[in-house]
Amino acid sequence: MNEPRPQRSRRILWQNVLTVASAAILIAAEVFGAAFAGSWAIASLLALGTLGARVLDGVFMLCGIAVMAQFVRAAHRVEPFTAAD
Fold it and tell me: 0.85 exceeded by the pTM?
């Protein structure tokens, strides 16, 4: 009953890891570029000045990080990084 389970070795599926990493780099460039452009545009439109633009940069960057985390988690479910031998 308390017998230890035999350890199964797992191997990394490098093709899946590289696919997800490449897609994440591409999407991150778009997400963070849009965040900076959006914060600049909104700060200019509302005349918030430099400080307002930096605050919006921070808010939009946090949103971008959340989007990227969601993407990587969803991609990991579709493309598993490891497989049992």
Answer: no
